[in-house]
Design brief:
A hairpin with a 5-residue loop joins strand 4 and strand 5. The chain is globular. By secondary structure, the protein is α+β, with helices and mostly antiparallel strands.
């Protein structure tokens, strides 16, 4: 599958600068991978799972599968760590969690 242009709600900032993450941390979302490599891996995984997506800026990917919509944003956590911020914008929590679990296991 490829990119989809249908999602435009609740979109985060898409600056060229990577934003820093502050807040509760999910350990499964922390990575040492470089942002460019991480984004490429995420896009391959989304395509593999037939999830429509649209990139917004350098670090934000807006995703849509069935009735579930969510945003993945690559953020800086510490000087060498990056963080995947995942945010559901529409759809059932159960379906969202199932999709995100698959993505995190492959990304």
């Amino acid at each position: 599958m490829g990119k989809s242009e249908t999602i435009q709600e609740n979109e985060p900032c898409s600056n060229k600068q990577m934003r820093s993450y502050r807040g509760m941390i999910d350990l499964s979302c922390i990575t040492l991978k470089e942002p460019k490599t991480l984004k490429e891996n995420i896009e391959k995984t989304l395509a593999m799972h037939k999830i429509h997506y649209n990139t917004k800026g350098m670090y934000t990917i807006i995703c849509d599968k069935n009735e579930v919509r969510f945003v993945i944003e690559i953020m800086k956590l510490k000087s060498t760590l990056n963080y995947l911020k995942l945010q559901r914008t529409k759809g059932a929590m159960k379906e969202y969690k199932a999709i995100v679990t698959k993505l995190l296991n492959h990304a």
